[in-house]
Amino acid sequence: MAGHSKWHNIKHKKERMDKLRGKLFGKLSREIMIAAREGGPDPEKNTKLRLAIKKAKSSGFPSENIERLLLKAQGKLEGEELHELLYEGYGPYGVAVLLEIITDNKNRTASEIRKLFQKYNGNLAESGSVAWLFKRKGIFSFTTNNASELENKLMELLLDYIEDIKVNQENEEGKYEVELITSIDNFEDVKDILDKNNISYNSADINYIPENTVYIDDVEKAATLLRLAEALEEHDDVQKAHFNFDIPTDILQKSLEIINK
């Protein structure tokens, strides 16, 4: 499984840490606000908002806070002016980085993100220099004891919708991580079919996937990239960070041991 997917799984664990630090709720609030302002406050008519609310509720975000955010998005309560942006850059070793940003201060955010890149020998790039290396796709993640059985079931139900299925190797608990990738246009149809057939998934989201990857088989290089990834992920204005590195599992584990020392 590509390094960016393994990092995606690591991020799920890190999100619990973000919640303890109070960062996750702030990011979820901005995501809901932007989605509601762009597509309207009705989740039934606004897919982006529906996904943002579901993600917030699964993280324990209070329902009354969601209601207040929807009112702010409609101008019924005072709220900050938010901007949704894409930042593009290069980390060390030629790794491409695409950041989904929501900020109330473009100049401050640009300055802070640029400093993070420079700290790890990367650089913030011009618009269009990196985005073409990524494609937006719908991604569903699953955890299963029997990867072959789940894969066959998904193929049976969703043959016309699946673009790819990725199966991670068995983890410490003897389970497999499975990702189903589909187009944005088919995202809602896939979600409906899974729900109607009572097939549970860990997450359903629209993300950027790299068209090609940079293979990193050096522990120190991998550790540097993961430090950059973590620093960018932890910035308050970064909603999502996408990378095109591919790090083998054994190198990934060794680099994490270095970081956690």
Please give a handful of descriptors for the protein shown:
3 domains, alpha+beta, globular, four-stranded antiparallel sheet, 261 residues, Alpha-Beta Plaits, Arc Repressor Mutant, subunit A
Strand element count: 10
Please, how many helices? 9
End-to-end distance: 26 Å
User: Biggest sheet: strands side by side, in what order?
Assistant: 3-1-2-9
SSE order in H/E notation?
Answer: HHHHEEHEEHEEHEEHEEH
For the report, how would you describe the main beta sheet? 4 strands, antiparallel
- CATH homolog superfamily of the largest domain: YebC, transcriptional regulation domain
Helix proportion of residues, in percent? Answer: 40-55%
Strand content: 15-25%
- Note poorly predicted spans: none
Principal-axis shape: globular
CATH topology of the largest domain: Alpha-Beta Plaits
CATH class of the largest domain reads: Alpha Beta
Radius of gyration: 19 Å
Give the arrangement of secondary structure elements.
Blueprint: H1 3-20, H2 23-39, H3 47-58, H4 63-73, E1 83-90, E2 96-103, H5 106-119, E3 123-125, E4 134-144, H6 147-158, E5 162-167, E6 176-182, H7 187-196, E7 203-210, E8 214-215, H8 219-234, E9 238-243, E10 245-246, H9 249-260
Parallel strand pairs: 8-10
Antiparallel strand pairs: 1-2, 1-3, 2-9, 4-6, 4-7, 5-6
Helix pairs in contact: 2-3, 2-4, 8-9
